[in-house]
Write a structure and sequence with these properties.
Two copies of one chain form a homodimer. Chain A is of the alpha/beta class. Chain A folds into two domains: about 1-280, Queuine tRNA-ribosyltransferase-like (TIM Barrel, Alpha-Beta Barrel); about 280-375, no CATH class. Chain A is built from 16 helices and 16 strands. Chain A has helices at about 45-50, 60-65, 70-75, 75-80, 95-100, 125-135, 155-175, 180-190, 200-210, 230-240, 260-265, 275-280, 315, 320-330, 335-360, 365-375; strands at about 1-5, 15-20, 25, 30, 55, 85-90, 105, 110-115, 120-125, 140, 190-195, 220, 250, 270-275, 285-290, 290-295. The longest helix of chain A is centred in the C-terminal third of the chain and has 27 residues, at about 335-360. Chain A is globular, with a radius of gyration of 20 Å. The interface of A and B includes residues 65 and 329 of A.
């Protein structure tokens, strides 16, 4: 269920609420990635205390380890991991298709080998709905085939068409015999469809139309952040978002940087997830009000000020840049904790600012002001993207 | 400064208070090891919230990285790491002597190479007092030569005699020209002497007498927990403790297991440190009211109860054994956090129980009851000891 509260008068930015069985999520929202049932380096309390009310889980990873049966015995993923907010699970499609040599795709689904122990598994559209249902997800994602970048038009079209057929099968299975969508939603969470079509706008139009007519509780734009140029991604978003149902939440999968999020919000996107803040934190990079800072840089060796002077959270109240750098160089876990916490605090603050700005109908001003002080001072060859970690 | 509050009527157990420039520490006390300026996997807040009021730092490690000069600029180690309790630093002796091929010992001190970058450093008795003073330690340890186990009587005696001469030099340097001990203590923390002598009780007697006459604020028993049999360690403690000044705190370095601590408290020891709870936590072992539990064990795979049902802390309130096992097997940082936190909570509770029991003059009963329920069910070849981590 989605409640659209207000829209910008200057652009397509929207302020809404995603209503789930585990509470209300204020949108636009960034969802921290908790691949294996934990947001890496964080405790669930810390994620909650930063204001996050929804996190991601990865169906592929949780299916392989610990397996949905144990999670079911524990009373669902929320109870298993001790998280009282909402949980969105992906369909596993992205991970399975990333396996390349270890998988075989047929119309029926995907046969693949576990990256952990080589054991054989099969994901079908119906099967991944069942797994997500067993996990107890609040938002389930339809099984999709994500074409790699670059792919030609023919390949991308074929993958998109299969994604549509799979989306139909997921929808039918999720609705169950004779049950309406609302009932399915209340007992088993909300199913989101996924628009594919690569960087081909004609395919994106067709896919948006197809997925929209399924009348699912939400729609995602998939197949972005897979290596395409940033401009192509934004073009896809700007083109596709207006084609999606106005009264349903729009989720841009795997995106992104603060700049990407600001751009996509302007186009009317409501939900985001990305491994960047957590992964960069663990590799020594902090998002700050002055751009990204690489804590390994020698200039922080005797910098006794906080990593981000504008951060008022635990990470920056209690630890100087020099101390965090020392911890990082000495391979101490606390370094990863502080940096991850800080980056998530940065994203939480960004999203709160975005929501407040839309409410005050000054989103474009907010965006301008944010980007003005946020200068990307150090990039250090960071690889972006990747849907799980 | 030490304030002896009460002693057991049945044994030598003592209940006291160590008064430092950073607050009062209730004894008997266990001090978590924060080798490089962090108790591994913990935040300073977490350590504090578990009730700890004193932690260890390692002079060797902090001298090499980040260096005492940066720490001085930060306003001392307490401010650098954000810890408002007390800090005890070792002298670096144990680490330097562990370097074996990388060090050369003369009467003047120890020349050694850094294990990090091979750079050359020299530790003298006066120098390590200066480093600890620069770090801002509340309790400084005298530079000592810790004979390895086994060592013959002649070697052990020679190392002990050098330790005595070094203790004298440390004491003179710490007191400063014309300054009394109390003044030195207030400006630069309390210096503790270290009794050596290996497993030879005649040497321990001589060393206890020598170190006692230095009239330092505290006395440590060093050179235990270096590989000798547990019985030999306890024999040394039982023999040495009564020879130490009654009005000064007694610190048993690098000890130990819950059983060791209970035995040593009975002999009149006030202070302990050991890497066991933190190191075992990071390698998957939890101390529980029913003995040690190896979370890797298959029997925890579907155990949805807490690791220790008698633990009421965050670690066991919010996480089942099966979840922690899943996190551990999936290489998630949260596993190390939960297990370390739990083990320190276990030690904190043990020490609080010991203190309360001595106050109620029922320490031997407490010891019996604790050991009755605490059965070492799994040991799994864990290596004990090691003064830093």
């Amino acid at each position: 269920m989605f409640h659209l509260k207000t829209t910008s008068s200057e652009c397509a930015a929207r302020r809404g609420q995603l209503l789930t069985r585990h509470g209300t999520v204020e949108t636009p929202v960034f969802m921290p990635v908790g691949t294996q049932g934990t947001v890496k380096a964080m405790s669930q309390e810390e994620v909650w205390n930063l204001g996050f009310r929804i996190i991601l889980g990865n169906t592929y990873h949780l299916h392989l380890r610990p397996g949905e049966e144990l999670v079911r015995q524990a009373g669902g993923l929320h109870r298993f991991i001790g998280w009282s907010g909402a949980i969105l699970t992906d369909s596993g499609g992205f991970q399975v298709f990333s396996l390349e040599d270890l998988r075989k795709i047929t119309e029926d689904g995907a046969l693949f080998r576990s990256h952990i122990d080589g054991s054989e598994h099969f994901f079908s559209p119906e099967g991944v709905v069942d797994i997500q249902r067993t996990l107890g997800s609040d938002v389930l994602m339809a099984f999709d085939e994500c074409a790699p970048y670059p792919s030609d038009h023919t390949y991308t079209e074929r993958a998109m068409e299969r994604t549509h057929r799979w989306a139909q099968r997921c929808t039918r299975h999720w609705r169950g015999p004779g049950a309406g969508g609302r009932e399915a939603e209340e007992t088993t969470g909300q199913l989101f469809g996924i628009v594919q079509g690569g960087t081909y706008l004609d395919l994106r139009s067709r896919s948006a139309a197809f997925v929209s007519q399924l009348e699912l509780p939400g729609v995602a734009i998939g197949g972005v952040s897979v290596g395409e140029p940033k401009e192509a991604m934004l073009e896809v978003v700007a083109h596709t978002a207006p084609l999606l149902p106005r009264d349903r939440p729009r989720y841009l999968m795997g995106v992104g940087t603060p700049e990407d999020i600001l751009d996509a919000v302007r186009e009317g996107i409501d939900m985001f997830d990305c491994v960047l803040p957590t992964r960069l934190g663990r590799t020594g990079t902090a998002y700050t009000s002055r751009g990204r800072a690489n804590i390994k840089n020698a200039k922080y060796a005797d910098d006794l000020t906080p990593i981000d002077p504008e951060c008022s959270e635990w990470c920056c109240r209690s630890h100087s840049a020099a101390y965090v750098r020392h911890l990082y160089k000495a391979d101490e876990i606390l370094a990863l904790r502080v940096l991850t916490y800080h980056n998530l605090a940065f994203y939480a603050k960004l999203m709160a600012g975005i929501r407040e700005a839309i409410e005050g109908d000054r989103f474009l001003d907010f965006r301008r002001e944010f980007l003005g002080s946020y200068r990307t001072t150090q990039r250090d060859g960071v690889t972006e993207g990747g849907a799980s970690e």
